[in-house]
Every structure is written in C-alpha cells, then in structure tokens.
Design a protein that fits this description.
With 100 residues, the protein is an alpha+beta fold. It has helices at residues 15-29, 66-73, 76-80, 82-88; strands at residues 2-10, 34-40, 57-63, 89-97. It has one domain: Alpha-Beta Plaits. The chain contains 4 helices and 4 strands, in the order βαββαααβ. The longest helix has 15 residues, at 15-29. The protein is globular.
C-alpha cells in the first residue's frame, strides 16, 4: 500500500476549470486499485503555523501498489483532460509515503 499526498495550488480564477478536471480524474482512481481518502479545502483559519504558501486543496490517496499509481498517471482518459489541469493549477507538491 502506498499513500500519495498532494498539495494543490490553483491559478486564481481557475477554480471551475480545476473542478472540471477533478470531476474526471477522481473517479478514475478506483480503476487502478486506488481510493481517495481525503479531499480537503482548508480555510485560512485552519492553519496554526505555516512557512509556505497555503494550498487550495489537499488530497490523500492510497493505492494497493506503486504500479497502480503509475497506471493511474498514464490512464488515456485522464491524459485527454490534462489540459484542464495544466490550465488551472499553478503548481502542486506530491508526497509519497507508506503507513508506519
């Protein structure tokens, strides 16, 4: 089992485009033995301390194996809509880990 945490930073004003991409990408996760565990849109008052930009959303996803995550990234349907992601996301930070 692997866990992927993603901190997502959106281009201001492109939230609708981002959500269009998420509406396509999130259901695809389950095709590859994955589960979206958390999708959080933190409010400014949710941060006790920070030394980096506050993300628009935080996702926690688990996959049964790393190959499942790789297969998800290369899914043809998802790839057809990557232009929405590229248009709406300023950047993201991807953190991969395992449960201890």
């Amino acid at each position: 089992m692997i866990y992927i945490t993603q901190l997502i930073y959106i281009v201001p004003g492109q939230e609708t485009i981002f959500n269009q991409f998420e509406d396509i990408a999130i259901p695809i996760i389950s095709k590859y033995n994955g589960r979206l565990l958390l999708r959080v849109r933190p409010e400014s008052n949710s941060f006790i301390e920070h030394h980096m930009d506050k993300p628009y959303e935080i996702h926690l996803v688990e996959f049964d194996a790393e190959q499942d995550f790789e297969n998800f990234k290369h899914d043809e349907e998802r790839k057809r809509f990557l232009h929405l992601k590229e248009r709406s996301m300023k950047t993201s930070i991807l953190i991969q880990g395992v449960k201890l």
